[in-house]
Design brief:
This protein has 334 residues and is mainly α. It is built from 14 helices and 5 strands. Strand 1, helix 1 and strand 2 form a beta-alpha-beta unit. Bound molecules: adenosine-5'-triphosphate (ATP) and L-tryptophanamide (LTN). Adenosine-5'-triphosphate binds next to helix 1. L-tryptophanamide (LTN) binds next to strand 1 and helix 8.
Length: 334
């Protein structure tokens, strides 16, 4: 809470090409929440280096992600859109919180187990303490709400545990954050395996719609999407492929599943696939056009980067000063 405005924090990694899942499950909700809260949306580049990155590529992707935040509809004059690495408070608080986090807790994190299995040659300590940095992100701004996908819920729970533990010792220092899980598009599934979520690190490019895909690619990927042999358009668990297509259609057109099922009653999968593709193209086209414009406007983006880093730093330092006093660091003499 800042004044009487509730605070919202969320972030995304600039690794890989963003997918329709990232947009419908995260970014789109962020835009809808922007009016209600004081919002901090970070490009979490510090999290990205837990797996090896090509420096030039990371720098480019991080900036592209910032463009995308704005192109998707976040207002950078209102919401604080910034790079995590520009605010040193994230690293400082993460260290402190490391000392209030148990290895037993971190051992239980399923994302760590998954990523450790995937990057067996580089199981570094940063990968292990990733959730502590995420807790620092959230607690640094005294966030009341954190929009996250189901996959990040465990990290939000550990954040709450760490904050409660700290508050128990030192008094009410941190706001305890609540998760916010959106409904439409909460879980977009892979087009090639509807039992699996659509993920930007999927090796099969046909499994995901990337936010940069052109209309022909989008149409082609939906044409190839895995469905079933029932030959009937229904919204039910037994038909996960068709259900996923309907979910995507609904998220893009603001229809309910019932409305969509009625609309396509008696029609073939081909018709449904074309309609879904069209709905996705019309959602992505304006975003892609805006990204192109922003890429050309370096001076504007540079100003946003500078001003928002300063804004974020201001709020971060407020929390950090309080925390440092509470834990007994000597006062800085200026
Ligand atoms: P990776 O493949 O690198 O793990 P990812 O595509 O799963 O990446 P994240 O960077 O982990 O994406 O997530 C960014 C945000 O997008 C999170 O809030 C996450 O919950 C959301 N998100 C990711 N994939 C989906 C999906 N398929 N459906 C809905 N939301 C998603
Ligand atoms: N771990 C998250 C990204 C992330 C985040 C955060 C999300 C880093 N810090 C703070 C919400 C709040 C992810 O990979 N999706």
């Amino acid at each position: 809470m800042i004044g009487d405005t509730k605070v919202l924090f969320s972030g995304m990694q600039a690794t890989g090409n963003l997918t329709l899942g990232n947009y419908l499950g995260a970014l789109k909700n962020w835009v809808n929440l922007s009016d209600e809260y004081l919002c901090f949306y970070s490009v979490v580049d510090m999290h990205s280096i837990t797996v090896r990155q090509d420096p030039a590529e990371l720098r480019k992707r991080a900036r592209n992600l910032l463009h995308l935040y704005i192109a998707a509809g976040l207002d950078p004059e209102k919401a604080v859109i910034y790079f995590q690495s520009h605010v040193s408070g994230h690293a400082e608080l993460a260290w402190i919180l490391n000392c209030f986090t148990y290895m037993g807790e971190l051992n239980r994190m399923t994302q760590f187990k998954d990523k450790a299995a995937k990057h067996a040659d580089n199981i570094n300590a940063g990968l292990y303490t990733y959730p502590v940095l995420m807790a620092a992100d959230i607690l640094l701004y005294q966030a009341d709400v954190v929009p996250v996908g189901a996959d990040q819920m465990q990290h939000l729970e550990i954040t709450r545990d760490i904050a409660q533990r700290f508050n128990k010792i030192y008094g009410d220092v941190f706001t305890i954050p609540e998760p916010f899980v959106g409904k439409a598009g909460a879980r977009v599934m892979s087009l090639q395996n509807p039992e699996k979520k659509m993920s930007k690190s999927d090796e099969n490019p046909n499994a995901s719609i990337y936010l940069t895909d052109d209309p022909d690619t989008i149409v082609r990927k939906f044409k190839r999407a895995v469905t079933d042999s029932e030959g009937m358009i229904a919204y039910r668990e037994e038909q996960p492929g068709v259900r996923n297509l309907l979910d995507i259609y609904c998220a893009c057109t603001d229809h309910t599943p019932e409305e969509a099922v009625n609309e396509f009653a008696g029609q073939g999968y081909g018709t449904l696939k074309n309609a879904v593709a069209e709905s996705v193209v019309s959602v992505l086209r304006p975003i892609q056009e805006r990204v192109k414009e922003l890429e050309k406007d370096k001076a504007y983006i540079d100003r946003i980067i500078k001003e928002n880093a300063e804004k974020a730093e201001y709020y971060a330092n407020k929390t950090l000063r309080k925390v440092k006093r509470k834990i007994g660091y000597p006062d800085r003499i200026r």
